[in-house]
């Protein structure tokens, strides 16, 4: 079933089984990839603006101390880690999904995080303390909705059973933790090497 470029994401989040099937088999891969990058970009913007402009009752930290680059990384890195981990595992488990398909289905699954959280950036500035419960509830709804879409998307992309999909998703999360550990180890090693050569250079110059 053909859907317009910008109508299709809305169709997918309310008809996930048909939507992800169309995403994998019916629609242009190039158009899907472009739209996926747009969705990821909008999620980054939502995250940055939420940290900067949300009301003080729901704000997690001082906007003056916010690092925009870190806010971008908080979105992009987990998405990339998830795609790499999921692709690596499902390749060994006879999954049918290609890396691009995993990336596009993951990005489309994040749409509720934008649609629900973006309006609350402005609403959070006019709510009372008692109404912050609605803010938290809406955020939880967005997360649960996205997780459900991620589950359906993963199952459709790889043509797995529900139980196998849950298993691979849990293994993917564990693999993400391992990848994060390796990255931290790598950057720590790089920092030590740079520090060593810096001290060595200072010693040579001073003598």
Helical percentage: over 70%
Give Rg in angstroms.
21 Å
End-to-end span in angstroms? 75 Å
**Tally of structural domains:** 1
Principal-axis shape equals globular
Mean pLDDT: 89
Structural class: mainly alpha
Give an account of the 3D structure.
The chain has 207 residues and is an all-alpha fold. The protein has one domain. The protein contains eight helices and no strands. The protein is globular.
Short description:
The protein is an all-alpha fold and 207 residues long. Helices cover 80% and strands 0% of the residues.
Topology (SSEs and partners):
Elements (H helix, E strand, L loop, with lengths): L6 H8 L1 H11 L2 H25 L14 H25 L6 H11 L1 H13 L8 H27 L3 H45 L1
Helix pairs in contact: 1-2, 2-7, 3-4, 3-5, 3-6, 4-5, 4-8, 5-7, 6-7, 7-8
């Amino acid at each position: 079933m053909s859907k317009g470029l910008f109508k299709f994401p809305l169709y997918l989040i309310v008809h996930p089984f048909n939507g992800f099937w169309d995403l994998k088999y019916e629609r242009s891969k190039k158009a899907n990839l472009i739209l996926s990058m747009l969705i990821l970009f909008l999620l980054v913007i939502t995250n940055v603006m939420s940290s900067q402009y949300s009301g003080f009752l729901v704000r997690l930290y001082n906007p003056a101390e916010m690092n925009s680059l870190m806010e971008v990384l908080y979105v992009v890195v987990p998405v990339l880690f998830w795609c790499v981990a999921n692709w690596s595992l499902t390749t060994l488990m006879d999954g049918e999904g290609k890396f691009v398909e995993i990336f596009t289905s993951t990005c489309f699954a994040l749409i509720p995080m934008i649609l629900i959280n973006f309006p609350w950036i402005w609403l959070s500035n006019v709510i009372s303390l008692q109404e912050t419960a609605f803010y938290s509830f809406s955020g939880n709804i967005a997360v649960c909705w996205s997780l459900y879409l991620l589950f359906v998307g993963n199952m459709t992309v790889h043509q797995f059973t529900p139980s196998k999909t849950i298993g691979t998703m849990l293994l993917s999360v564990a693999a993400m933790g391992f990848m994060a550990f390796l990255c931290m180890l790598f950057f720590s090693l790089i920092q030590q090497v740079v520090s060593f050569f810096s001290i060595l250079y200072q010693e040579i110059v001073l003598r």
